[in-house]
UniProtKB/TrEMBL annotation, chain A:
PROSITE patterns found in the cross-reference section: PROKAR_LIPOPROTEIN (PS51257)
Record carries keyword tRNA-binding: no
Top-level taxonomy: Bacteria, Pseudomonadati, Bacteroidota, Flavobacteriia, Flavobacteriales
InterPro entries: Multihaem_cyt_sf (IPR036280), Multiheme_Cytochr_ET (IPR051829)
Entry annotated with the keyword Signal: yes
Record keywords, A-Z: Signal
Protein's name in the database: Cytochrome C
Biological source species: Aquimarina aggregata
Domain of life: Bacteria
UniProtKB/TrEMBL annotation, chain B:
InterPro entries membership: 4Fe4S_Fe-S-bd, 4Fe4S_Fe_S_CS, ET_IronSulfur_Cluster-Binding
Organism expressing this protein natively: Aquimarina aggregata
CDD domains: PsrB
Stored Pfam families: Fer4_11 (PF13247)
One of the record's GO molecular function terms: metal ion binding
Domain 4Fe-4S ferredoxin-type: 279-308
Name of the protein described by the UniProt record: Molybdopterin oxidoreductase
Keyword set, alphabetical order: 4Fe-4S, Iron, Iron-sulfur, Metal-binding
Length: 206, 400
């Protein structure tokens, strides 16, 4: 075979390869690549989830690089402000002179060695919570109290992997705070029955 | 002219002219058209002749050999599908030159409804309402594929559907035809260590999406699996009824994963299902022919078929509807999860996300670098089902 034929053959192969390597299925190798590339010039979107959290009283919090809304708590606690009854330090209110209260609260959280009422509440200032080091924590920011021990859950919650989103996926982000799902005095969630059973499926599979 | 060529002619989605299949024909019957009259003296190119159904001129065209090859091809393509690619609505059906067989098919399909419509609309005894009903039925019957409609046409069909519902049920619904938002790609993450199998999501989904109550259709399945044995769908129970979470079990949900490379879309012979720009895989219920190819093609059991006419008690119907979402379906069409398109396109969470009491379901915009879904993808160990198929589902699973 002459040299010219070789060159012709090679160029044919080259041209063939040039076209055959072009896949028609898209310009990105994977979905992850596509997401990364397309989100580079993201400048926000016109929809907002604001209308869906309108009737909810919220407070804005900033933790690390995350800023979002959580439900306001104080107005939801029936007997807040606590000082309406707790007018004196706790020691002076013990005894039979006062109306009994909080009989429905039993502490089933960790164990008695680790936790008692005073781990979170301050007998001298009932309107605020207190951290392990004795610093005051507002009732609206009670997650700060939980995050002292539950640090992994706190990380996930900030990022959005733990806890429940409220309203919509768009900005502004609103999420439930710890005490919206977990009763701080009894954080374990009881088992229950599923909300539905598909009887038709049973028939179909008979 | 191969048989398959006929189907390509009905491809109304193509924006460009079809280059395959030289022209239309008058079917396989040899005596049907002059072009096939076994005239062996004629040269070969004659076999790509033109439609003889509605336009008689088409048949004679081969008698003019002075027409250039290119010219002839153009004319042939134009005669067969050229107009179909540009038109919609009535025009898509009426202004198209077609062969006799197709014409008969289209006519018979519409005969019953047409006859009914004509008799009611021409009748002097029937009232204004039934005339309007008939007019709506008529226009709905001949509307085009939603994907090809202009915004006006979309509004028109939505208005027709709303009005039709009002006439029939004396109730008002709202129906949207909201388009995909720019810079939005929907994604979903599911926390398998959080799901407790309560099935609140299934409940919410059925109510939100007006699913048939009789057949108890459900888009979502929750699978109860044994701890320590991995995903074994054949051993999992997706219809349990006992106190949950059961000892030694974990729960995971499946639904439509809205694949970025959806196999169901590829197999649809009538292009009644497609991937929208925000990543949602949707169905035009009025264009679906119910062949269930998509159901077979889906590797995730994400699609459902209406074996009977879906029925929902009037007071339970969700009246906030979307054309591509939860509007009332009919018998014999496919349906599936749309990530609640009627909610998600206006910024709201899908019903399952809103209903889940555990926070196991996370929904958001994959193109927003600050969204929670992006945080989960970046910081949790996520995986998808059957990743090796290359379907690129936009539904990730993860654990705490």
């Amino acid at each position: 075979m002459s040299r010219q034929n070789y060159i012709f053959l090679l160029s044919c192969i080259f041209i063939f390869m040039l076209f055959s390597c072009k896949h028609g299925e898209g310009e990105y190798h994977s979905l992850t690549d596509k997401i990364e590339e397309k989100s580079k010039d993201y400048h926000g979107i016109p929809v907002s989830s604001e209308p869906y959290i309108d009737d909810l009283k919220t407070v804005e919090i900033t933790e690390g690089e995350h800023t979002f809304l959580i439900p306001e708590r104080k107005s939801q606690i029936t007997s807040y402000a606590c000082t309406e009854c707790h007018s004196k330090p706790l020691e002076q209110m013990k005894g039979s002179d006062f109306k009994k209260a909080h009989w429905d609260i039993g502490l089933v959280h960790a164990n008695k060695v680790t936790m008692n009422c005073a781990t979170c509440h301050n007998g001298n200032n009932m309107d605020n919570l207190q951290s392990l080091t004795g610093n005051s924590i507002d009732f609206n920011r009670s997650y700060k109290l939980c995050s002292q021990c539950h640090s992994q859950q706190f990380e996930d919650w900030k990022g959005g992997a733990h806890g429940k989103n409220i309203g919509g996926w768009a900005d502004p982000r609103a999420a439930m705070t710890c005490v919206n799902c977990h009763n701080p005095h009894k954080p374990h969630i009881e088992s229950r029955w599923p909300s539905r059973f598909n009887t038709q499926k049973v028939k179909e599979r008979e | 002219m191969s048989g398959i060529g006929k189907y390509f002619k009905l491809n109304m989605n193509s924006a460009t002219r079809q280059t395959t299949g030289g022209a239309c024909s008058c079917g396989n019957t040899s005596g049907g058209c002059g072009s096939h009259s076994a005239d062996t003296s004629e040269p070969a190119p004659i076999k790509s002749s033109c439609g003889c159904g509605s336009d008689s001129g088409g048949c004679e065209s081969y008698n003019k050999p002075e027409m250039g090859d290119q010219e002839f091809f153009e004319a042939a393509v134009d005669a067969s599908i050229g107009q179909e690619t540009k038109k919609d609505g009535f025009d898509q059906v009426f202004e198209v030159k077609m062969d006799r067989r197709t014409a008969f098919r289209k006519l018979t399909a519409s005969l019953m409804i047409g006859a009914g419509a004509v008799s009611t609309s021409c009748s002097v005894t029937s009232g204004e309402e039934s005339k309007e009903k008939a007019q709506i039925d008529w226009e709905e019957q001949f509307k085009g594929n939603y994907k090809l409609m202009t915004d006006e046409e979309r509004n028109a069909t939505v208005n027709r559907l709303v009005r039709s519902y009002e006439l029939r049920k004396k109730e008002n619904i709202t129906m949207k035809s909201t388009d995909a938002l720019k810079d939005v790609l929907f994604g979903y993450a599911f926390n398998i260590s959080k799901c407790q199998g309560y099935m609140d999501c299934v409940n919410a989904c059925v109510e939100e999406n007006n699913q048939d109550r009789n057949s108890q259709m459900q888009y979502i399945r929750i699978h109860e699996m044994k701890d320590g044995e991995g995903f074994k769908f054949n051993e999992a129970d997706d219809n349990y009824y006992h106190e949950v979470p059961a000892e030694g079990h974990f729960y995971m949900g499946t639904q439509c994963f809205h694949c970025d490379n959806p196999p169901c879309v590829d197999v649809c012979p009538v292009q009644a299902t497609w991937r929208e720009d925000d990543g949602l895989v949707v169905i035009d219920y009025d264009w679906c022919v119910g062949c269930r190819y998509c159901m077979a093609a889906c590797p995730y059991d994400g699609r459902r078929f209406n074996w009977s006419t879906p029925e929902v008690p009037e007071e339970e119907i969700n009246k906030n509807q979307h054309y591509l979402g939860n509007r009332m379906r009919k018998k014999g069409v496919m349906e599936k999860c749309t990530f609640c398109v009627q909610r998600s396109r206006s910024g709201k969470d899908p019903a399952c996300v809103e209903a889940c009491p555990t926070g196991a379901r996370i929904f958001g915009n994959l193109l927003d670098p600050n969204s929670t879904i992006r945080w989960v993808l970046a910081n949790k160990k996520v995986f998808r089902l059957k990743e090796d198929l290359g379907t690129e589902p936009k539904f990730w699973y993860f654990m705490d």
